């Protein structure tokens, strides 16, 4: 076990590394087998393991077993403790622990008081100790699955984790005899999981990663440029997440129950509330798969059994507010990245709440046709959103496990990771039916040094061509629809009707040419041949341009000095 | 990184009259850049970090990576043949294969039981390429395929898991001799650790506990010795069997040989177990850690004992002190009672004497008053009557009243006054009903 303040390290050849996603509601663990990530099932057969610990007569239960104890043994059950790590008591939000062991203040940090021994007084467990116990169980499950003792892991963290929280997480993992190879940000882990698929190609694209979890929703805009990821903007939300969808269903079923049984509100009794919540969560999950879900609880309140069903449409109606909130959150973060929805090439939905088909359908409506929506209901080949983070972490673990800890530290040093990103795209002037236009070679917000190559058609008849390297950027062209004459005024008083009828503005993303950087000529092209143009931007923003006929010799090469 | 994008829109034709030196003309400079943090994640970041840390450009990095890859393959190929071949080994007769060192023949001496199947296969291939009899014949040497047969035999043994185990069992070159006293002095645990590391290859159970360092805890050390004293070894000694005749003619002889071999195996196995035990005894005897743990345990035990004794002593002392104090209290109480008694007695005596004294005063007073006689000597009757009356009064009053009366009479010398006091006293007694009128005659 590592001494306090000193990080645990393991020699590269002794390592057995996994990816670990430790969430507030659920955790999952993945390892790599033959370079592809596999999410590990624990001894209960769960791949999403509830981040819950429960103590009954000195026995420790985790995962689904512990979750079941929220009804009968709530005061000795620990939930939603990840976000308490490394925080002081004043700044935590104890809402989600209300129906379980309550957090307490202990020398500035957070602790829980539970009976974790068969006899005697309740003991006080610091949140770090709780996290350690949880991680130890996860690691044990992974070790059992792999058949080797797991020594190291890559852990995922939200983008807004402070240094103190990271330190606390590393310490908690080290106390569980686990070396932390690296902490990686959740949205980047999600992107990596998609990019590591064998069929994936590395393109320059802007990705929105919406990590919709149980207690929080985090959205990030990630610029992926030749496999290098830059986070352009993030948003965090604690009001529109999985528990709020549960809440909506709880209220719905509580009202249904009260219709049949006057004056009995199952929300007023802690045990009834816990039953209601557990069944609402499973109804929500059922509605993500089927269009109908049944809801049945024995002895929901005052010994009365309750049975009901709900269809998806009804659910989406009652959950309208939460779903709308998620939409606004995602639209907001695209805006704060200085982008338009048209600039987004891919939307990755991650986290358990992303199974909800309505959210994916909403994304489909918000983003243009060309945007890929990676969610189970819109893309059958998408990866299970709940598994993305663990997979990404496992892939990263397999990449860096052969490096010494010092090497990893040096490579993740800000001197290496902080680099200039070009604001404008670099491309060449090309001609089309609509006259001269801009064909991008390097996208905006690309980290330098960067190198890109394009093959561009020469004129049909061959001959000499001009390669004019220019900067460019996108802007959104809004085309007003043709006004429908005369009819408009009449419709104005009936606003609902006219809104439906009104055609939307046609919005397009178009490239706008900017400053010219250089001009070059490639002479004597054969008929129908292509030109290869390579643009290489150095770390100091100096540019080297090479152009030659594909398959030809020689070519042109020139430098543009750094600004 | 070298992937290319295809662009369909064609390039413009070169305008008339465009010319530049080497066909290239820089015009502007890149505008605008933002410092941002790229996420240290993914294979392409690794490449970026490598380039940034070694300050390489894209093409340099591509070239160096390609070179490294190529070099790796070569090194792999080199590693196995780098072992020099002993000329004596090359002279070996194939029929003596039982005594040959198969690992040495294949050039795997440094790997021995650790050699993987893949390594053995590759080593075999290399040796075959080098020592194939046809090659020797081609180079004009005599057709001597002895060593080639050695190679084949070695491969046959090492690629068969059962035969390989049998050979590994008797492969003494993989053993590490226990350190001499002199060697052990320098770094005892390290020297012995090597011995057990080598012995661990015979364990049926994987994850053999190792000797550990000076900082090993008691449970770790205990686990080590427990494990090794109960060592479950797969070591077998079939390899050293004498050849069993393969003919059907002499069955008895064959069976005799088989029995003999089985017994020999059993004996060797027992010897081997004894050897390991002896090794352990030797190692444990010099293990400073065991001594230290024993000392600590003794110290702890002694401390317990001392504590217990001290506690007993203290209890005894306490009991003694308690008893003493109790005794003292009892004695004091007794003494107090005694003095109280004596004081009472004294007081009583004092009261008695006071009464006597007062009575004397009373009698004296009547004497002073000349027994109330009017002039001259009082007659005997008179004296008697007066004294009788005094007696009567005295008998009727209690000691306090006698004292009060004595106080009144004390100092009085004049007969009338004395008589007055007496008369007053008699009157008081008569009023109180203690005396009857006429009881007292002389004092009225």
TrEMBL record, chain A:
A Pfam family the protein falls into: HSP70
Database matches in Gene3D superfamilies: 3.30.30.30, 3.30.420.40, Actin, Chain A, domain 4
Compositional bias segments (type: Acidic residues): 490-505
Keyword terms: ATP-binding, Nucleotide-binding
Biased composition (Basic and acidic residues): 480-489
Span list, region Disordered: 480-511
UniProt GO molecular function: ATP binding; ATP-dependent protein folding chaperone
Protein name: Ribosome-associated complex subunit SSZ1
Species, as recorded: Apiospora kogelbergensis
TrEMBL record, chain B:
InterPro entries, per database record: DnaJ_domain, DnaJ_domain_CS, J_dom_sf, RAC_head, RAC_head_sf, ZUO1-like_ZHD, Zuotin/DnaJC2, Zuotin_N
The protein's name: Zuotin
Span list, region Disordered: 1-86, 246-273, 297-352
Pfam assignment, any one: RAC_head
Gene3D superfamilies: DnaJ domain (1.10.287.110), Ribosome-associated complex head domain (1.10.8.840)
Positions with biased composition (Basic residues): 47-56, 253-268
A cellular component term, taken from the record's GO annotations: cytosol
Biased composition (Basic and acidic residues): 57-74, 306-351
Organism, as annotated: Apiospora kogelbergensis
Gene Ontology MF term list: Hsp70 protein binding; ribosome binding
